[in-house]
Amino acid sequence: MSADSTSRRTFLWATAAGTAGVATWGQTVVAADAVSSPMSGLIQPGDVILFQGDSITDAGRSREHAGEPNQQAAFGRGYAWMAAASLLTSRPNDELQLFNRGISGNKVPQLADRWQVDCIDLKPDVLSILVGVNDLWHKRNGNYDGTVESYETGYRELLQQTNEALPEVKLVLCEPFLLNCGAVSEEWFPEFDSMRAIVQQLSDEFQTVFVPFHTMFDQATEYAPPEHWAEDGVHPTPNGAAQMAHHWLAAVYNKPSATE
After folding, report:
1. In the chain, which end has fewer C-beta atoms inside a 10 angstrom radius, N or C?
2. CA-to-CA distance for 223 and 29, rounded, in angstroms?
3. Rg from Cα positions in the chain
4. E strand intervals along 6-94
5. Other Cβ atoms closer than 10 A to 84
6. pLDDT under 70 in the chain at which residues?
7. How far apart are CA 56 and CA 235, in angstroms?
8. Is 260 exposed, middle or buried (CB count within 10 Å of its CB: 0-12, 13-18, 19+)?
């Protein structure tokens, strides 16, 4: 058995128990609109798939095996882990290589500082980015002086750099999200809504797949309170992470995001 096969088997055994009950329920509870994508057949056999972002993507991942693909510990226990587990179980012979480089607390400038090492050098075929909540949260607690305009400028520069270095890369932009509970209050939303709109605009501009996480959670609160999905309004619970994984997969496969 090859090292890659062993790695994949280890990953699958580790993920099976964690995703079994949560993901199935999460897939059926929200009746969301179909998610459109400008790309068909986004993920191809042999692709390198990279998840990038902040703590929501980090999800407590271990750095010990970060250089090895398909390692459960290196994915943490969030949506990236659940999405990766689904890809590896459903496509066992495609030799996919999945990595997670989310880092807790990161804003757009921190992504830019480490982009060469943690993105470009990995040469991903598919790059998924979720960033934005800290750009507002850290501003509100006085630890950052960024603006909506600097968020847009920095994010656009990041995407331009990526396309110049990796002209064939397939981009997945994830809508940042907040739920009105925990640390989050109604006062956060006017500015945050502008940031969400920027990500949608950038997705259109760069012709990427777009994953509407905030819209998804807005719909999810019709079926369960915000705390069910993210107790502090920012970091998803296992149910929230399962919803995110399901909708991420629906977006990259250009399928309806709820079970018919």
Report:
1. C
2. 7
3. 17
4. 48-53
5. 25
6. 1-40, 255-260
7. 6
8. exposed
Q: Which token pair is 198?
A: 């920027």
Helices (H), 47-176: 55-58, 79-90, 108-113, 115-118, 133-140, 148-165
Scan for tokens 């902040």, then name that residue.
54
Go through the domains of the chain in sequence order and give each one's CATH number: 3-252 (3.40.50.1110)
Give me the pLDDT at residue 5, please: 45
CA distances from 130 to 164, 242, 259 (A): 20, 16, 24
Task: Determine the pLDDT at residue 34.
Answer: 34
**Per-residue pLDDT reduced to its tens digit, 189-213:** 899 999 999 999 999 999 999 999 9
Q: Nearest Cα to 83, choosing from 196, 174, 205? A: 174
DSSP bridge pairs for 257: none
**Which distant-in-sequence residues (6+ apart) come within 8 Å of 55 by Cβ?**
102, 103, 104, 105, 106, 134, 235
Residue pair 229/191 in contact by the 8 Å Cβ criterion: no
pLDDT of residue 255: 57
The residue with tokens 């990526």 is: 162
Q: What type of residue is 185?
A: S
